[in-house]
Amino acid sequence: APTLGMGGGAGGGGTGGGGGGTSSSYSAPPSSAPTPMEVTPTYDHLPMKGYKVFDGGIDKKGLTKVISKIREFNDAVTSNNKLSPNEANDVLDSLCTTLSVTNRYHSSTISDIELATIQKMITSWDAKQSFPALDLARMVVLHPDAASPKRKGYWEEILIGAMDACLGLEAEVAVPMLTMRLIANSYKGGSGAAGAAASLVDRILDCANACAPSDNKNVRLSVATAILNTSSYMSSSPPSSAASAIRILDVVGTILECGKYESEPIARSLVALGTALLLPGECGTEVQRVAKERSVNAMVEGVSSGHGDTAKAVAKEILSILSYD
Questions:
Q1: How high is the pLDDT of residue 191?
Q2: How confident is the model at residue 21, as a pLDDT?
Q3: What is the pLDDT of residues 49-74, one digit of tens each?
Q4: How far is the C-alpha of 201 from the C-alpha of 207, rounded, in Å?
Q5: Which pLDDT belongs to residue 170?
Q6: How many CB atoms lie under 10 A from the CB of residue 68?
Q7: Following DSSP, what letter does each residue of 34-102 receive, concatenated?
Q8: DSSP track, 201-252
Q9: How high is the pLDDT of residue 3?
């Protein structure tokens, strides 16, 4: 029977659909770990496995700050969209207590009313007032119970509300940054949240593309991480067609061409690109074909130096994939 390799089930450890390499490691002694049956090249940095998250501020101090901002905005919200006294006080206090005890996440729960309170703010408040609720959602989505399978519909509504707020405010900082961080964290939180993000992937990549040329470095890092996690999810759960993966090429193209990105987000963007190129089967083959058609190699070569060792190493792997037949 086939056995899982060391990759933890995230895309088969770099099978790019290219075929043709050889391996001489089949005669390992019985006592050693099983050798994954791979005949394609393997890479040090690609494909991405796992997810990068934004988990700062999930403590009493950070949460108190977010809640006080929500209460300040709630006083200014029109009466029919206002949080009730129970929502603004007891519900938010209870939620913050649960979130701050991170070592109890395996056993603590998040209630429907706590999630509904966040949803109410993100979907009905003015976009400019939604950022503390987005920040809270970014933290809540990392809680396993909040992101469990039964909550998929809830996270779809939250993500749609966040992107609706974001698309009117791409030139701002807080809403685009927190929307992208919420998206990035959704893939990590649990299968409900990850499934919600996967079901909205085209919309997510359009939103990332709109935010990509931001003049703010925190937004830029958040965009790069959102597309990195999107491509990592695709690697472990390949899409039915290559169309969504090709949109990753669009966003990376915007990032590389705008000339504003620092070393870390450049490296993350390149890993997102390389992971899309290595998607299993026809998907990866099609992404590679489109990348060659668009001369992605020239863009990658253009940013490969001057952005640190990781970016340079990932760029080298991408160029190797694109010339590998």
A1: 96
A2: 42
A3: 999 999 999 999 999 999 999 999 99
A4: 10
A5: 76
A6: 12
A7: PPP---S---SS-S--S-----TT-SHHHHHHHHHHHHHHHHHS-GGGSPPHHIIIIIHHHHHHHHH-G
A8: HHHHHHHHHHHTT-S-HHHHHHHHHHHHHHHHHHHHS--SSSHHHHHHHHHH
A9: 33
